[in-house]
Task: inverse folding
């Protein structure tokens, strides 16, 4: 529950920093959307934490928080990878490259015949 409250404070401070800069770019919009999604995550954590305090034997609230923690961890890994400049390995990009490679191989095979 405390993590959700501190997280909301962090998001509020970050949003204020974005507003203060007054720069409207795609990256700024992307950051704002990320912060809004993060705020939603923290609100859900806060509500579920209060639910656990009110009903300690409620497994649904614990499961929701566990899922949020795992998703947050995976997003953190993805953001860290982006920060260090690792190669992009999105599912859409990989499938597109696979299809292009398959089409290129088929075209090469037809030209050889």
Result:
């Amino acid at each position: 529950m405390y993590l959700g409250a501190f997280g909301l404070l962090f998001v509020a401070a970050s949003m204020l920093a974005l507003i203060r800069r007054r720069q409207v770019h795609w990256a700024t919009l992307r950051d704002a959307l990320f912060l809004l999604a993060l705020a939603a995550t923290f609100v859900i954590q806060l509500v579920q934490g209060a639910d656990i305090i009110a009903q300690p034997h409620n497994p649904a609230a614990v499961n929701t928080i566990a899922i949020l923690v795992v998703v947050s961890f995976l997003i953190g890994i993805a953001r860290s990878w982006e920060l260090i400049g690792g190669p992009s390995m999105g599912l859409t990009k990989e499938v597109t490259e696979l299809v292009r490679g398959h089409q290129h191989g088929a075209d090469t095979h037809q030209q050889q015949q």
In short: The chain has one domain: 2-88. The chain has a mean pLDDT of 78. The chain has four helices and no strands.
